[in-house]
Amino acid sequence: MSLIRLSSCKVDTFVKQLPSVVASKRQERDNLFMELFSLEWRVRSAIYGRDGWTSDMETVILELREGGHEFCQAWRIKVLAASRVHGEMCQLEDDLAKSIAHITAQIEICEDVAATLDNAERRGELPADVPSSGELRAQAESYRATLACARRYAKWLPSTRTKSLVPLCLVDVLRI
Predict the structure, then answer these.
(1) What CA–CA distances, in Å, run from 106 to 3, 6, 8?
(2) What contacts 167, CB < 8 A, 6 or more positions away?
């Protein structure tokens, strides 16, 4: 029983902390994206004059990657930061999927062991130092609550694989 609890403690903590971590990462990502949009606009305006948005994207990206302007250097720093945050968001998505699989497996283990304990109890072969099947079923119910929460978060977690609100300059960089 303690082994089951110990192995799931980290997963439970991860699931409980996920909303605040995701909110923080989402805010950081959105701030970086807005800064990148602003820097793109500056480069477009510098290359093409007043109407920056009519400029050719390839030329803008080339200038951003290789240009010596101060805002080009800032852009490159922001792209690295956005790539890092994006990677962290992808990792959260992967970790949540692994957590759901782990919790599901723990529920199955609890149910299987509880059934075995029920059989041993009926035969009078249950040692005194073994938890009761009721305790294991209660633990399984606790895991079910965590699992329901994790599945809700999986639906709520912003997909890192979508192109919406990603500056065009990052679509290739982030491989979206």
Answers:
(1) 11, 11, 8
(2) 33, 36, 37, 40
SS3 124: coil
pLDDT in tens, 100-130: 999 999 899 889 888 988 888 888 887 777 7
Q: And the tokens for 148?
A: 């329901």
Nearest to 18 by CA among 143, 139, 151: 151
pTM score, whole prediction: 0.67
Structural domain boundaries in the chain: 2-173
pLDDT of residue 171: 57
Report CA-CA distances (Å) from 45 to 42, 56, 89.
5, 12, 32
Are the C-beta atoms of residues 107 and 147 closer than 8 Å to each other? yes
